[in-house]
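fwd from M.: "can u put these together and see what the complex looks like"

so here's what she sent:
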Amino acid sequence: MKDKDFTHPYIPNSVPEIKAEMLRMIGAPDADALYREMIPERLLLKKPMDLPEAITSELDLRRHVEEILAKNKTTDDYISFLGAGCWNHYVPKVCEVIANRSEFLTAYAGGPHSDLGRYQANFEFQSLICELLGMEVSGIPTYDWGAAAGNSIRMASRLTGRNEVIMPRNMSPARLSILRNFCDSASGIGRIEIKLVDYDRETGMVNLGELESKITEQTAAVYFENPNYLGVIEVDGKPISEIAHDHGAESVCGVDPISLGVLAPPSDYGVDIACGEAQPLGIHMYAGGGSCGFIASRDDERYVAEYPLRLVCVTENKEDDEYAFGLTRHDRTSYMARENAKDWVGTTTALWGITAGVYMSLMGPEGMREVGETILQKSHYTAEVIEEIPGVEVPFGSFFKEFPVKFNKPVKEINEDLLGYKIFGGKDLTAEYPELDESALYCVTEMHNLTQIETLVDALKEVLA
Amino acid sequence: MKVKEYHAARWKEPIIHELGRKGERGFIPPKTEDKIKKRVGDAGNLVPERMKRKKKPELPEISQAHVLRHYLRLSQMTMGMELDIDLGVGTCTMKYSPKVNEDFVNLTANMHPLQPEETMQGLLELVYEFGDVFLREISGFDAFSFQPPGGSAGAYNNALIMRKYHQINGEPERDEVITTIFSHPCDAACPATAGYKVLTLYPNPETGLPDTEALKEAVGPKTAGCFITNPEDTGIFNKNIDEWTGIIHDAGGLCSYDQANANAIMGVTRAKEAGFDMCFFNLHKTFSSPHGSSGPGSAAVGVTKELEEYLPVPVIVKKDGFYSLDFDRPYSVGRVRDFMGNLPVVIRSYAWSMAMGGRGLREAAEISMINNQYLVDKVKKIKGVTLPFGGRRLDQARWSLEQMKLDTGVGIDDVNRRVIDYGIQKFFTSHHPWLVPEPFTPEPCETYSKADIDYWVSVLEKVCEEAYSDPELVKSAPHRSSNHKTKGNPFNDPERWAMSWRAYKRKRGKK
């Protein structure tokens, strides 16, 4: 390890002569001497780390990593009916091109002049998602739907000065786990008590009677989802918001934005704070790495003051005939206010926000309507033909993209058998929703063609026979 | 070194909503087959009347080439790390992200996180081994999670572990955490979000670090733990850190180490020997994953054996050569993010670490540290620039332009608009409060050559000279950037601010 010949392509000054020259200019014999000035001897590692040798040849590195990753299967190899918070939608090539641009991929903390384009692209994401949602304010997106919902509920709690939230049982249990963390408090200060409201077993929608009985004058927010985790379109959005408002609570709704070319925007049914997951908008799944949560509301100073996110604002330099950008009320954020901030903000998912902006620009109103219609038709068709198989039931009739399928045989076995047909069956719901018996959540998008759907049906017939 | 008169692209690009014409199409989604249409009928019949969208969203209608052109122009007006000498953006470790790693990430683009484990063995193996081989050795810790999707999310995750630990151990009354003002703001904001009261220690003006006595006064029966960056954002390493963690432990608290600034200490000193119980590494900083205009990133959390059972679920485990996801962990904090986190970021970090090897990681640390000493010696000589606090700095240093501001009226905000006229990114100043007045914080990590550092310092020198000779030139900058100095400030004015095009049109009375 002591040989001098270690010049790494990622480290220009690792050339021994350069390193020596710089040490000479600093006036130090070696790096160790400098470290000893800054770090006490007792904390210095005494021996080199026990780690693999460097693979400095790019070809060798490629072979090494690709050999490991070749052990994976993907949804290109298998027909996948998995969704449940991460969905297989088509990603237009232009989205990939922009997401891979050096400038966007490697920018970070530049300013509104040096990174004018980044600020504008951030602003355009906000603008475009607001058009889909019928809202006027959004920000640079956060980590995922769960974080967006968590921030939204905490915004509602601060807005109302109340400490209860009502959430539906027909939401993602993983998301609920994230929200339980957001709502708890070490000191008890700011703790938000979660009350769960059940769903109607016939429709899959929020049980309004139970909601009425559980809401109190301490309720900060009623949170619901549309379509919900079980894929069901929540038709009662308006009554839910009205119940919330009648009790002085905020109506907070999580939505899947790819549905919004065909489904009413949350602003139509009284929602105060909308949130959700932007991954369907031109972002690959990346085994869950494509998540991107958004928050939006009306343009009301009270709401703006409670956002944790960076809010990019447009303005104009009139005499120069150009746009300019800045950050609205940046003093709210943890970058400025530390522990007195509105939650926290950090490195989130700006690149995916930019990519989702490209997607919405490409799609336009017609593209969003068409993709929504295609998803509706294909998912309903799949549900209908699956239900024709003896012993199979699709319990809920009104859905978008996802629907539970109830079997007369353990889902675990069915899904294992389907692998033999190169099919990823729907997500097993038996642990999360025992009341639905042996059910799996099937997801059908514009990606599925008739042949793939028929392959599933044929396989299920054999597996269930 | 002679500085170059750079000029940025200046496209005066309209907002996307102003482009295109009614009827233009950028993209046609896949259509529904006739057989399906025949069976299920019109899509309109599949949506309950009350939930039908009545009014189309006012998205722009633009041909594909024009959408591409627009976003390419926006990208050209963005000074990404790959295009400039980005060492001024300290605390962020703007290092080179090897391009080949993007190919590896793309192999997982179409993987679903809920696929059966046997179809994800490659991905799970790579992520597990990155923790088990590299992070174990670099941190000294025993178990790892890759679920937190950003650095701050890592601090939040550790606050949740702290909260759960004290709840389980019957001491929920411990509701105070301690941090230092030169630790990243997430070390205060994230515990606060988890419901902690935050005590912040301020530095001794001589050393730049809080005195150990101040810590001793801060701890007590309410202490849940500490969240500390070391070296701090000033680049100063707290030599008493092991004594500090001992004081926290003696008070019954846990110690969380924010290792966002780990680049100059890999293979040099570790979290474990410093006495910490948990840490997180920002994989989009030290471990080369690109910053993505601010995410997606990843915080790799490391914990001691004792805290392993608190990690968020699922945890990747290995048994008989098979990698699986373990959800059955009764003491787990549950989830901080859906699914497994941002695993593409981990793939890049694994590939980068393999390319570096043990020796390369240590070399990266040494060169980062040496680069910073070299830069410090040069910047010290510039008129108007001062370095508050004594002693050497590890990976970065927090400088002040206070003297120049007093002399000329030109401060860091002006300088930050002027340096871009010479083709380098504006500097990171400091998080707030600006304890160091008119601050800037360069971090010349291992990516930058001696010539890069020389050029960067020459630009700083040139702009400081301009501040003394022609302050208006600097104050009115930028002159060659993508737009001009912003006039007016609507950013705090509810009547004029606009976070969407529809709000802008309404407030400016446009159609």
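replying to her w this: Chain B touches chain A through 220 residues (CB under 8 Å).
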